[in-house]
Amino acid sequence: DDMKGMDMGDTNKKNDDMKGMNMGSANKKSDDMKGMDMGNANKKSTSMKGMNMKNTKKIKKGMDMKETKTKNTDMESMDMGLGEYYGIDYNILKSTEPIIFPKERPLREVKLELTGDMRRYIWGINGKPVSRESTIMIERGEIVRFKLVNTTMMFHPMHLHGHFFRVLNSQGEYSPIKHTVNVAPMESVTIEFLADDEKNWFFHCHLLYHMATGMARIVSYGGDKPDADIALMTKQLMKSIDDNVFYFWGTAELGVTNNYFNLNYSNNRNAVILGGDANWKGDFEIDLDYERYLTKYFRVFGGIDAGNELFLRKPSGDLGTNVDSKIIRPVVGIRYLLPFLIESEVKFDSRGNVRFQLSGEQRITRRLGLGLRGQWLIDGYTRLHVDLDYILNKSFSLFANYDTRYKNAGGGLSIKF
Fold first, then answer.
1. What angle do CA 74, 369, 361 make, to 5 degrees?
2. What is the spatial distance between Cα 416 and Cα 27, in angstroms, rounded to a whole number?
């Protein structure tokens, strides 16, 4: 439980001012568990005797980040070299003395889903980062129970400042006391504490880059009015939190016959995307969109497309089927992320042309992946793009592909950044 060496002031360049939320040491012995019968419990109160490490949970290989790689990210494809993950089974921990809360106290239950989007690197609680939903309200004298449900593929060590809590397990009244609990991927943990303090306390993931990008809340005691200077610092902190900054990322495939690229400038709800493909003969399609996330999976977008007319819409009568004709058109549409990380898209232009698209990529092995993209322009064409890529490292891959649009096969070097 030691926090030695963890200088919260250095978590990131914008978040060094956390003073306003009583994030500190609570050295007034403020973890005084008033009304809590802890018997003779002290700092040795969690017994490790008889601990059988054979009960340590093994997280299956199928939960490896590497298996969730998609075309437009460089995170999940990294060869992390971690092998199998292991997590502690909290059922093997037992307090040496029973810990009993007063039975007459009211109980407040709060479900907190630990959420995230590993493709865009956004983290939050109940689907929202701290900048969009900052506070969990409680009342002094309550027994507060948090049910932490991890919906992501990463561990989240959740830490509550100024309080110790019981990690509810099979030991019942002998459930251990902690200030941080590690919630394994796709698992749930329930904690509870006696709300016997005051004002505001920070609750966050102790993977500090998860905290900085949104996985945090302020646990606030109702009826307490914070000091003016503390309120000001809290307001300044919420303005400077890093969970809504824009990041630039993308891919470029430099090929022998065809080239492809996708550039993104995005934060947790907005994205500007520039993408397209071209061959060495001068045929191309380039799309520039502004995209708005309405939910984690559903987006709307609008922008412009440019390129060969036959790639974008039914040819106009005066141009016939001249494949060299180039146009620019306004477009709007919707996108939805389907299971297995399959991206779906419906796009409409100003002349009523409609184009459907499905695209996705799955890992065959840790380094070898298969990507598919299908397009159907109503009363126009059907396109299929097949791509094989072999990961060299987190930034570079080799690829080979076939594209019915350009009627050729090719290959080259893919760069992720």
1. 75
2. 47
Domain boundaries of the chain, sorted by first residue: 8-48+93-242, 247-416
* CA dihedral of residues 355, 272, 77, 414 (deg, nearest 10): 80
* Per-residue model confidence as pLDDT tens digits over 178-208: 999 999 999 999 999 999 998 889 999 999 8
The answer to whether the predicted template modeling score (pTM) of the entire model surpasses 0.85 is: no
Q: What are the two backbone dihedrals, phi and then psi, of residue 236, each rounded to the nearest 5 degrees?
A: -65, -40
* Neighbour count for residue 294 (Cβ, 10 Å): 10
Is 247-416 CATH 1.10.287?
no
132-156 pLDDT tens trace? 888 999 999 999 999 999 999 999 9
Tokens encoding 211: 């905290």
Whether residue 368 contacts residue 274, with contact meaning beta carbons closer than 8 Å, is answered with no
Tell me the C-alpha distance between 162 and 141, whole Å.
15
- Distance (Å, whole) CA 236 – CA 20: 9
Is 3.10.310.10 the CATH classification of the domain at 8-48+93-242?
no
Beta-carbon contacts of 83 under 8 Å, excluding residues fewer than 6 positions away, are none
Answer yes or no: are the C-beta atoms of 325 and 319 closer than 8 Å.
yes
Are 99 and 173 in contact, with CB atoms under 8 Å apart? Answer: yes
Torsion of CA 325, 405, 368, 77, to 10 degrees: 40
How many CB atoms lie under 10 A from the CB of residue 78? Answer: 16
In angstroms, the CA 15 to CA 21 distance is 12
Phi and psi torsions of 342, nearest 5°: -95, 120
Lookup result for tokens 């009015």: 225
